[in-house]
Structures are given as structure tokens and as C-alpha cells.
Task: inverse folding
């Protein structure tokens, strides 16, 4: 939940910077950009958001919502006498490795997470309010259209046909446009998403300015401005809290009218352009409709300052040179590229899927009989074949909380920083009682890793500080590298997330020391991960269990089997409503490894 708010705010800041960039470009190159470019440049904002949402958010939407709903509305805690049984999990896997898991629970939820939930509720309320206002406006528009009557002037149909021909409208499109007279509008407006409707005040249907009015409103229809305006209003509803977006939407309405004027002017003879300017003066300053809630309407109306700009442009009208059109296309293409690559997206959410290099050698294998009723994935790297064997590819690429498997790299970061050493890693127990007897004693790196002692690694993290941790996770490229939650639980069903495929790739880098770390520190971590030896092969690994509202929902077992001749690196992840523990993940992984003759 905190991730969603964090990246939403980050995206909003990026949108603000993009809007400022557009404003600067429009100001600096005001005379080199065409009127069309001045208008359409704003639509880079919703397009960039839609594209990034489609590429990153929707593939994981169900998973994100499931986690959010479960976290907010899942079963509440048991009474105090049963709290230990409800919030704690203890499963002995073997004498060598223990799978102990605790959850922060609602009492341990950080201030940041509570703030995130509050902000999300406020954003949702504001968005729903904006959407309901737009819906009410749509209903009003429907009533206006249904209540309009066709113009009764004999020459009207001929004038309408001439205007459509002048604009080069196809007959099929022109036939979908309806024109009506309504006593509830005092300035011409265009409505309708799929089937545009031009509404005229009663006096306009017999006014000498009618041809210019029709040209202006039919141009709105041809540009599909009502539909584009609706898109921008939806974009504004989602970003209602961002003042820069409000500014952009206001400027779009101004640039839309200038663009529309320019399209009409290029069709007119020089002596007709002044008559068109007079028509704009006559009609553009009148209030368009009785109700301000009809936010999606477009028409001739302008504010005083905007009207002055329009008349100035009409008076100084000159067709744009070919160089202006080429320059405008170049600017628009460049901004689209920047928007799609630089604006942070929902794809950056911690629940995103990993996008591995295309050159990665992967082979899909069906291992569903091993997983029973659990959802999950399995990744195995064969060192001899340099090949990744994967069960459930999409799940293997989806990032999840690492839970206690993160301790491999927490320990490595502390070793590299000198907080502990390979020969001196003992840290004293401060006497605070913990739910597991094994935790209530002093620990070194080996015992803390095998017994998954939270306080040991939380102490290491706090000693290093968030900045050193962030730098280290960035150096080794650990998952989404997101440590924005509380330093004591960022790895525990919180902000830090990593995919099973990345777990294997990281262990491969660890085994080969791709990061150029001290050899003795790498070896110290390997020693701490060692579980057992069999016929010359050594099994090393770490379990992890994620708990939400007392239920085991995320189980990990990652590690490797190495001998003089072979190296196999693996990661198994389980997902479920309950029972998806590290202990169960280890059982399944060892069964797979045994059946493959690896262990």
C-alpha cells in the first residue's frame, strides 16, 4: 500500500516536471510550433500515463488488489491469550536450519504505512467526487441533447452541408453529427463522445454569423474535441490533487480554441477572416450553459484574456510554413519519447514483474504435481548448461517480499561495512524476550542465519543506517531496491520486493562474487548458509515466511547445491491464503531436487 502511494506521488512530481517542460517549450518556440502542436502537445500527459499503466500495472493488478484487500480487511487478531499462536510461526525443518517467522501486525505498522492508507483514502474520495461530477454533467448533456429541436430555417441544411464539404468531412462521419437548437444554451457548444451533437441557441440559427459558427463547431467535431476533452477530464479526476494538472487542463481549453480558429481561418478567403473574428467576438464571451457542471462541453466561449489572445491570432493569421510543421512533429516525437521513458510509472511499483535480458537461456517445465493447491514458482539454474529451468514463468518474474531470505544480503552488507567480521560476528542479546527460545541468547552470523533471528539482522541494519543499506542494495541490484518502509521491517511483506528469478540470479552473482566484494565476506555468508553435505555435494540455503494477519501467505526457500563438478542454484516460492511457509517451500524444493538427482 505504501508502495502505491509512494510511486503515485513520484509519478505526480514527474508529471509536474513534464508540464513545466511543455510550458517552457511552448514559450520558447511559440512561433515555431503550429497551432495544432500547441494544442496536441498537452495530450502527451494522459498518453504517457496510459502507456505506463498498460505496460506495468495491469499485469499485476489482481495481485496488488488481493494483497491490499487482505491487508486492510483480512481477519483481525485473535484475543490476547491466543496472540502467540496467531501471529507467530515456528516450524523446525531440521537441526541445521529453522523457519521462524513473525509479522509486524497492525500494532507494528509504521507511521508511513498508516499515512499511506490515509492518503490513498483521501485520493480515492477526491477521484470519486470528480468522477461523479463528470457523470452528472454527462447526464445533463444527455438531457440537453434529447430536449433540443432541429433548426427550422429552410436554408439551414444547405448551409450545414456546405460547411461539411468545406471542411472535407466524409459523408459517413458527417451523417453521425446532429445539430439542434436549445433554449438552455446561450453560446454554441459541442457535446457527445461517439456521436457529436452541436447545440445552438435559438438566435444563432438565423444569425448572419451562422456559417462561421457552424464551421467552428464542426471543426470541434472533426478534431473529436469532445472526446479528447473527456479524456483530459478523466485524467484530471485521477490527478485532482496536482495543481500542475489543473493548469494544464485550463491551458488545453485555450489552445483548443486557437487551434480550431486556425483550422477555420485557413479555409476562408482573406476578406472573410475579419467577419469570422467578429463572429467570435459576438459569441465567445457569452456564458455557454446555465450549469457549470457540464464540464465536458466544448464551444466558442472564452474568458476575457483568452478571447483577446484569439482575436490577436485571428488578426495576425498567417499559414504555417513547412518548416514549422516538421519542427512541431520533431518536438512532439521527442516529448513522447521522454514521457514514456522518464515518467515513473506503475510499472515501477514493487509488485512489478522482472523484465530479464532477452539473451537469458530459459526452459519452461511443468512441475505442478509438486505444488498441490499452492500457487507458486520454481527456478533452477544449471551451472553446467548455463540454463534456467522455470516453472510458472510469469510468477517467477513477479516481485514479492523476500521476508527472511533478505538476511543473506543484510549480513553481507554488514560484513562489507565492517560492522561485523568473518571471525567476530557475535552480538549480545539485550534481554528482551522473544517468542522463540532460540532467539533469547547471543548470536553470531551462523546461528542467526540458521535460526532466522530477526533482532540480529535488524540490529545490523540499524547500525549501518538506511543510506548505506540503500547504496548496498543498489550496488548488488536487489529486486526493486525499495527501502522506503521502516528500517526494521522493510523486508517483511513491505516495500522491498524481489522475484524468484532474481533470487537465483543474485545467488549466482554471490557465488561468483560479481560485485568485487571481499572474498572472506563472501565465504562467511556461504558458511552461514550451509545446511548439510551428502556424497560430496553441499546443500546451502535460506527459508523465509511472510505472514499477514496471522496467516502464512508467502513461503521461500532459496539456495544452491554445489560439488566439485556441478552447481545448481534454485529458488522456490509459494503463495497461498495460509500454509505457504518457508518450511513447506523447502520440502517441495528438496523433493524436486531429489527427483532430478541433484540432491
Result:
Amino acid at each position: 500500500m505504501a508502495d502505491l502511494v509512494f510511486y503515485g506521488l513520484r509519478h505526480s512530481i514527474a508529471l509536474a516536471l513534464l508540464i513545466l517542460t511543455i510550458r517552457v517549450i511552448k514559450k520558447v518556440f511559440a512561433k515555431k510550433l503550429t497551432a495544432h502542436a500547441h494544442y496536441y502537445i498537452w495530450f502527451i500527459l494522459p498518453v504517457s500515463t496510459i502507456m505506463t499503466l498498460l505496460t506495468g500495472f495491469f499485469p499485476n493488478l489482481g495481485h496488488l488488489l488481493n494483497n491490499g484487500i487482505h491487508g486492510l480487511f483480512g481477519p483481525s487478531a485473535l484475543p490476547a491469550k491466543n496472540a502467540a499462536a496467531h501471529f507467530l510461526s515456528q516450524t523446525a525443518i531440521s537441526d541445521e536450519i529453522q523457519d521462524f517467522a513473525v509479522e509486524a501486525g497492525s500494532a507494528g505498522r509504521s507511521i508511513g504505512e498508516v499515512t499511506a492508507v490515509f492518503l490513498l483514502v483521501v485520493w480515492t474520495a477526491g477521484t470519486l467526487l470528480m468522477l461523479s461530477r463528470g457523470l452528472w454533467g454527462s447526464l445533463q448533456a444527455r438531457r440537453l441533447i434529447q430536449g433540443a429541436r432541429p433548426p427550422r430555417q429552410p436554408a439551414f441544411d444547405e448551409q450545414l452541408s456546405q460547411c461539411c464539404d468545406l471542411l472535407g468531412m466524409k459523408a459517413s462521419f458527417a451523417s453521425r453529427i446532429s445539430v439542434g437548437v436549445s433554449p438552455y444554451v446561450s453560446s454554441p457548444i459541442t457535446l457527445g463522445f461517439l456521436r457529436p451533437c452541436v447545440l445552438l441557441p435559438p438566435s444563432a440559427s438565423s444569425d448572419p454569423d451562422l456559417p462561421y459558427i457552424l464551421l467552428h463547431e464542426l471543426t470541434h467535431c472533426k478534431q473529436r474535441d469532445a472526446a479528447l476533452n473527456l479524456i483530459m477530464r478523466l485524467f484530471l479526476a485521477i490527478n485532482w490533487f496536482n495543481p500542475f494538472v489543473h493548469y494544464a487542463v485550463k491551458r488545453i481549453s485555450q489552445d483548443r480554441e486557437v487551434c480550431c480558429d486556425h483550422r477555420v481561418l485557413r479555409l476562408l478567403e482573406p476578406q472573410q477572416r475579419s467577419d469570422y473574428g467578429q463572429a467570435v467576438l459576438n459569441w465567445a464571451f457569452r456564458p455557454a450553459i446555465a450549469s457549470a457542471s457540464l464540464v465536458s462541453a466544448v464551444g466558442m466561449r472564452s474568458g476575457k484574456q483568452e478571447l483577446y489572445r484569439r482575436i490577436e491570432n485571428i488578426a495576425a493569421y498567417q499559414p504555417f510554413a513547412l518548416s514549422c510543421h516538421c519542427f512541431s512533429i520533431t518536438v512532439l516525437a521527442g516529448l513522447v519519447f521522454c514521457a514514456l521513458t522518464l515518467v515513473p510509472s506503475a510499472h515501477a511499483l514493487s509488485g512489478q514483474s522482472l523484465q530479464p535480458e532477452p539473451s537469458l537461456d530459459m526452459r519452461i517445465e511443468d512441475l505442478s504435481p509438486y505444488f498441490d493447491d499452492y500457487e507458486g514458482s520454481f527456478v533452477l539454474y544449471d551451472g553446467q548448461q548455463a540454463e534456467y529451468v522455470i516453472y510458472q514463468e510469469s510468477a517467477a518474474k513477479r516481485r514479492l517480499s523476500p521476508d527472511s531470505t533478505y538476511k543473506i544480503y543484510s549480513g553481507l552488507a554488514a560484513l562489507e561495512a565492517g560492522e561485523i567480521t568473518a571471525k567476530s560476528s557475535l552480538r549480545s542479546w539485550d534481554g528482551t524476550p522473544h517468542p522463540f527460545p532460540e532467539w533469547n541468547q547471543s548470536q553470531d552470523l551462523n546461528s542467526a542465519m540458521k535460526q532466522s533471528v530477526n533482532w540480529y539482522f535488524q540490529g545490523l541494519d540499524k547500525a549501518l543506517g538506511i543510506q548505506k543499506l540503500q547504496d548496498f542494495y543498489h550496488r548488488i541490484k536487489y529486486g526493486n531496491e525499495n527501502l522506503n518502509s521502516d528500517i526494521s521491517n522493510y523486508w517483511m511483506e513491505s516495500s522491498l520486493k524481489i522475484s524468484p528469478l532474481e533470487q537465483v540470479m543474485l545467488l549466482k552473482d554471490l557465488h561468483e562474487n560479481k560485485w568485487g566484494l571481499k572474498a572472506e565476506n563472501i565465504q562467511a555468508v556461504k558458511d552461514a548458509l550451509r545446511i548439510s553435505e551428502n556424497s560430496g555435494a553441499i546443500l546451502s540455503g535460506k527459508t523465509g515466511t511472510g505472514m499477514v494477519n496471522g496467516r502464512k501467505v508467502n513461503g521461500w526457500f532459496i539456495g544452491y547445491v554445489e560439488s566439485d563438478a556441478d552447481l545448481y542454484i534454485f529458488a522456490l516460492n509459494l503463495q497461498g491464503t495460509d500454509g505457504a511457509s518457508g518450511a513447506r517451500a523447502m520440502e517441495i524444493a528438496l523433493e524436486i531436487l531429489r527427483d532430478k538427482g541433484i540432491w
